[in-house]
Design brief:
With 182 residues, this protein is an alpha+beta fold. The protein has 3 domains: 2-58, no CATH class; 64-149; 151-181, no CATH class. 68% of the residues lie in helices and 12% in strands. It is built from 6 helices and 4 strands, in the order ααααααββββ. A 4-stranded antiparallel β-sheet has the order 1-2-3-4. Strand 3 (169-174) and strand 4 (177-181) form a beta hairpin. Helix 4 runs antiparallel to helix 5 (108-126). It is flat, with a radius of gyration of 28 Å. The chain starts with a helix and ends with a strand. The relative contact order is 0.06.
């Protein structure tokens, strides 16, 4: 029976699940491992450290992409609900105006026209195309990288210099004095 266990082969997904469970059981619920421990385990498995480092970089990039996708979807939902709230408020006011002014019921036309746009917005928000999610995530990642490269803050000797990447401004502060350039 024991020899059967040594001849058994596991898929990468099974290995991942088994190791994750073992880490969860060992580490009081937090499945984490240090960088050095991961490299040591890889060496014991006969993997080259350079290959493991490359795989880690790929995983980090993949994780950043997945996080950006989720952030993009959440942002789309926030924008949709802002749009919906505006639609409800404005059209409620239009309905009240129409009811109090009498005459023909005209409020139906803006309600219907704007409602079509809202329906398209809902469709794009709750059923987005994969390429739209990818594009949105790439834009978010690129925007964040640009901002990280361009927003620089230097402090020392009571002075603070900030370079704002978005506005291209340089701000120099010392005490209560402030100079903005750009």
């Amino acid at each position: 029976m024991a020899s059967d266990n040594f001849s058994r082969k596991y898929s990468p997904d099974e290995v991942n699940a088994i190791l994750r469970r073992a880490l969860d059981r060992q580490g009081s619920g937090s499945a984490t491992i240090t960088h050095e421990d991961l490299l040591e385990t890889a060496r014991e498995l006969g993997l080259e450290p350079a290959q493991v480092e490359a795989a880690m970089a790929e995983q980090e990039e993949l994780g950043a992409t997945e996080n950006a996708k989720e952030a993009w979807k959440a942002q789309r939902k926030r924008k949709f609900f802002e749009h919906l709230r505006t639609y409800i408020i404005i059209n409620s006011i239009l309905i009240l105006l129409d009811l109090f002014t009498g005459g023909h019921t005209w409020f139906i036309w803006p309600l219907f026209g704007w409602g079509i746009g809202l329906a398209f917005d809902a469709s794009e928000t709750f059923f987005p195309k994969d390429r739209d999610i990818e594009r949105g995530a790439r834009r978010m990642i690129e925007r964040e990288r640009r901002q990280q490269r361009q927003d620089v803050r230097i402090k020392g000797r009571g002075k603070s210099v900030t370079i704002d990447g978005k506005g291209g401004r340089i701000v120099i502060e010392k005490g209560d004095k402030r100079i903005e350039i750009g």
